[in-house]
Amino acid sequence: MRMKKKVLSVTGMTCTSCARAIEKSVSKVEGVANVSVNFATEKLIVEFDESKASIEKIREAVKRAGYGVLDDREETIREVTVPISGMTCASCARAIEKSISKLNGIKEVSVNLASEKARVVYDSSQVRLSEIKNAIIKAGYTPLEIEKTSYEDSHQERKQKEINSIFRRFIIASIFAVPLLLIAMAHVVGLPLPEIISPEKHPLNFALVQAILVIPIVIAGYKFYTVGFSRLLKLQPNMDSLIATGTSAAILYSIFAIYQIAMGNYQYVKEMYFETAGVIITLVLLGKYLEAFSKGKASEAIKKLMGLAPKTAVVIQGDNEVVIPIEEVETGDIILVKPGEKIPVDGEVIEGRSFVDESMITGESIPVEKTPGSKVIGATINKNGMLKVKATNVGKDTVIAQIIKLVEDAQSSKAPIARLADVISGYFVPVVILIAVISALVWYFTGSSFIFALRIFITVLVIACPCALGLATPTAIMVSTGKGAEHGILIKSGGCIRNFAQNHNGCFRQDGDNHGR
To answer: What sign does the dihedral 245-459-434-432 (CA atoms) show?
Structure first.
């Protein structure tokens, strides 16, 4: 039996009930030994027997549950703009495009003759930037220094777009919710309304204006309905299902009230709940924004750790010193590190003598002497001498990359209390719906009006929110592990934080110290 552990990025989750639904679906795949979904980090951690299960089957299980899985390639898609010299006409641009497009992993290539630049979108897992440059050279032209690389952190970019989208929808909903609430409640608090929409003189206009104002709010919160009702149909209701059901009941009854007003039953002018639905959607959108924002802020520690490593390296090629992006450095390259510069990758000193500040890794404030044969760590600072370093570990194999992976794993892990919260929230939503239905029926059959029973039904649905239950602990773990990493303290998992007060051995350690402190 060969066990394998894999971490996948999941999309489409809106609450911890979603995480629970994914865990149930994936756990049914034959060969899956352990599965954990962290709502805060949107990560699926699965351990499975390779002889029975596969990543493809696991992806299908997630999709059957109604959610998406980011392809590994989506995480490795990059875009570069390469300045090129030597082009004289459109044929030159075409020749370069043909040469680059022949490489595996090239998604898109466009050469602009006027700006003398090539824009290339490529899969970094299939083709290296140095190969793209070589393709340009083979075409007979000279690639210059890369201007910039984007998509270095596709997850952060995706999350920022999500945060911006939610914020825009909240603003749109707020613009219409405020006047909707004022119009609906004006007669209650004694505020004057224009005669044309006065509930006493023009009740139908009063009702129609509210209906018109609630439409853009519903559109802004459309995901509550698409996701919520989809989960209901799959018998896996989540928080969105509560919002969708409650607000739909309010809106549908309000539409019925408009019909009654149009028929002359003016007493229904006080039986409309458009403002209830509109304000609920707006406030929940605000909550979603604050939730997404807090999750984004909590994961910024990873971004800061990535920023510790230098972006370029000076590689000795023959008699020349060539500045190349750090991604192009390969094992065996000879790198020149000048005084005051960061060492680009892990390696071994082959020439020179200096002192290196390794405090960001080991916590040792005194610089360590380095001579030929000494090991050096990427992102540490060369203090006073010139060093020639042979690269031994690059990319994901460097110490700083391993630290980043450790922090990511810790942020994705679940403390026992978080697992309990997920289990509770998984049952919470259907129980809330059941309680809402029972409450409404009890009030109705004990003599209350249908309107009052409906009000009870909506109230129970919209005040119940399991998200705080399932989000609080994962977010706390993300923040604590990230802050710890910034100060040189590595935390293996969320469970270690819980156990620290009782027995901290093996849970916490200073960077570079394997003995535990």
So the answer is: positive
- In degrees, to the nearest 5, what angle opens at C-alpha 280 toward C-alphas 277 and 285? 125
Give the C-alpha separation, 351 to 166, whole Å.
54
Q: From start to end of 353-507, where are the E strands? A: 354-357, 368-370, 375-376, 381-382, 387-393, 489-491
User: Does the model's pTM come out above 0.70?
Assistant: no
Name the 3-class secondary structure at 387: strand
Say what angle helices 203-220 and 222-233 make with each other, to 10 degrees: 70
- The values of phi and psi at residue 31, to 5°, are 100, -10
Mean of pLDDT values over 110-129: 79
- Residue carrying structure tokens 């405090």: 359
Task: With beta carbons less than 8 A apart as the criterion, state whether 116 and 96 touch.
Answer: no
| pLDDT higher than threshold 60 for residue 150 | no
Residues 6 or more apart whose CB falls under 8 angstroms from that of 379 comprise: 308, 309, 310, 342, 343, 360, 361, 398, 399, 400
Q: In this structure, what are the phi and psi dihedrals at residue 107, rounded to the nearest 5 degrees? A: -95, -35
Residue of 474, 509, 476, 515 whose CA lies nearest to 492: 509
How far is the C-alpha of 396 from the C-alpha of 415, rounded, in Å?
27
Q: What is the DSSP letter of 343?
A: P
How far apart, in whole angstroms, are the C-alpha atoms of residue 129 and residue 136? 11
- The Cβ of residue 472 has, within 10 Å, a number of other Cβ atoms equal to 14
Helix, coil or strand: residue 138: helix
**Residue in the block written with tokens 């293996």:** 492
Instruction: Read off the pLDDT of residues 276-293 as tens digits, 9 standing for 90 and up.
Output: 889 888 988 887 887 777
Q: What is the rounded CA–CA span in Å between residue 390 and residue 464?
A: 60
Contact call for residues 362 and 403 (beta carbons, < 8 A) = no
For residue 442, what pLDDT band results from cuts at 50, 70 and 90?
very high
Tell me how far apart the 2 most distant CA atoms of the chain are, in Å.
96
Give pLDDT, residue 220: 93
- The whole-number average pLDDT for the span 98-103 is 90
CA distance 167 to 170: 5
Average pLDDT over residues 294-304: 61
As a whole number of angstroms, the distance between CA 62 and CA 44 comes to: 10
Distance separating alpha carbons of residues 184 and 349, to the nearest angstrom: 75
Q: Which residues pair with 388 in a beta bridge?
A: 336, 351
Listing from the earlier edge strand, what are the strands of the sheet with 375-376?
Answer: 320-325, 312-317, 334-337, 387-393, 346-352, 375-376
Q: Do the strands 508-510 and 489-491 form a parallel or antiparallel pair, or are they unpaired? A: antiparallel
Chain centroid to Cα 362, Å, comes to 31
